[in-house]
Amino acid sequence: MGRRDAALKEEKEDVTEPFWIALSIGGIVQAYKGFAAFLVTRRWNLRRFVETGGMPSSHSASVAALSTSVGLWHGFGTALFAVTLYFSCIVMYDAAGLRRAAGRQAMVLNRLIERHFQDPEKETQKLMELLGHTPFEVLIGAALGVSYALLWYRVHHPL
After folding, report:
1. Where exactly are the structural domains of the chain?
2. Which end of the chain is less packed: N or C, by CB atoms within 10 Å?
3. How far apart are CA 38 and CA 65, in angstroms?
4. Cα–Cα distance between 82 and 101 in angstroms, integer?
5. Are 153 and 119 in contact (CB under 8 A)?
6. Alpha helices (runs of H) in the chain, residue ranges in sequence order
7. How far apart, in whole angstroms, are the C-alpha atoms of residue 84 and residue 25?
8. How far is it, in rounded angstroms, from Cα 135 to Cα 77?
């Protein structure tokens, strides 16, 4: 096997690495939120391991890690990086904007239900209020994602 063949084989093996980096940082952040909830309440709430919202944003961490990884592996001037960056911006905007607004609306609706229904538990189901993120939670998630991808690249692909 020649040098060029070895380089092509190594490149083929690494094509999914950005995906795994994004998936792993998302899992790490979600696990942190689950354990942090336990430390605060001293009760296990397994939903916190998969629920949206809270500090930091795991979606932002994942997409920021994905974009950074794609930029490092394939180049920051490629169409692939541009597409992943655009996708990342939409996800982060959605987390801090649309989903946060939906969470605020759920909070208002839950208050209305509590005040106007005799027995709210039987007549309706409480809406989930922690849906989105503050811009700061999105920023911290993105910073974690970028840092994780840079660290991964430095450890697994030293110069």
Report:
1. 18-97+132-156
2. C
3. 27
4. 28
5. no
6. 3-13, 17-41, 58-74, 79-96, 98-116, 120-123, 135-156
7. 16
8. 27
